[in-house]
Amino acid sequence: MKRIFLRIMLPALLGAYFSTATAQVDKKVLNWYNSSKTGMSTDKAYKKLKNMTPETVVVAIIDSGIDVEHEDLQGKIWVNKGEIPGNGIDDDNNGYIDDIHGWNFLGNKDGENINTARLNVTRIYAELKPRFEDVDSSDVKSEDAEDYALYLETKESVESNREKYKSIIEQTEQFRDQMLPNLPGMIANMMEVEEYDEKSLKKWKTDGPQQEQMKQIGLQLLSGDLNAEVLDKQINQLQGMIDGHYNPDLDERALIGDDIYDITDTDYGNNDYEGPDALHGTHVGGIVAATRGNDLGGDGVADNAVLMSLRAVPDGDEFDKDIALAIRYAVDNGAKIINGSFGKSYSSLPVAVYEAITYAQENDVLFVHAAGNSANDLAVNSNFPAVKYDFQKYPFTHLLTIGASTRVHEEELAARFSNYGKDQVDIFAPGYEIYNTFPDNEYQAINGTSMASPMVAGVAALLKGYFPSLTMAEVRQIILDSGDYFGDTYQKVPGSDDLVRFDNLSRYGKVVNVKAAVELAKERTTEKK
Q1: Is the pTM of this model over 0.90?
Q2: Confidence of residue 396 (pLDDT cuts 50, 70, 90)
């Protein structure tokens, strides 16, 4: 019973359900993504750019918000020079008042903000529930059959996830109360000692997988990575998912009061660029543009980028309307690259988002999008914004979809959580153990395709700034053509131990290489003259 419990539960307890698990930074982690050994060779790229003066490039970060006062982002935040701060007037007539560093699409005019939101699957279920909750399947009219099928699908998803997380909470509480206090004694008994410390635990020669697991648990107990406080935090996170993400009765948008299906209803939001929880967006922004070479945290990829903060991603699923409007805001206010480290499995306004991406494309603005963290094949599982929508005739020319790579090239190049797709993911970039900016002048290492996407957005900003004659379509192609080719190596499929050629996981079978991209950009700008 105990052995089974440990094997089943500990992955959940120690982070399997959380895609942003922190990692203790060390020399191997710090700035690895900029190195030439396993990273993108960013540092070597800058040696190729000596004596060149880049143009400033605006990168829009559509995310949870950015700590614009962070010490490592000073001078790296976009300023709307057409707006006079704090005068309550839309000076530049762009439809947004006092939008000095961007806009918050998750707030109201009184300065209140949405933080927790439902997943889109829950919103759909909540909308369909009044129509079909008491309807027998035999009574469903033919014109309602599609909606009814969607109702059943979303109902099953929401209710099964609510039950799953309730069960995990119960098991975690049981583990915390009944097993956790006994673990030190159990480990000592297995080691056949009275007591142990980190040194003796590391020297312990285990016999079999159960003892090895207990050894790792012991190390986590000593380091503080596993204790009642940590478990309480994860219980609270899981309860928050039940109360927020999978709560059909939550009406988070009531705080704003707009029509989420009316793309012309734009009189909402505020200029709180950070919002209540800017952890994710601050980290993403730092990957693009954190000051290089100042010994604070990790270095940003692009020394010439400034960040436009567009808060549109809550704790939960983003609203399609906010994403569409944020993309249009970015284009209209001078961004050349838009980073989208977000995604979801259901979309309620796909046409609006498609048209916004198309608008960016028509204005030569590149949209870089994270592939997602569910270890899914995107040829089978949906992730929105989509690589190509069902109704879309021609592929996007200004979209890059990015998978997450690691610093381990032997069999584990694709991060275990990364989504993939032979025709859906364009290229991979570092997204594992990425140490960069956190709010309040802090720094953390976290994981995700959310980290891989801004790597590429940063590369695009660097290329556009140093080679301004290039169009963003040309920048996109240079990034794809110049990547390090791993296509003929055998790598584990994310989420399994199956080995496949890496070119089965993405279109190009490559990982981004900044040095090679700079060299190719030089060649192609010379050819254009």
Answers
A1: yes
A2: very high
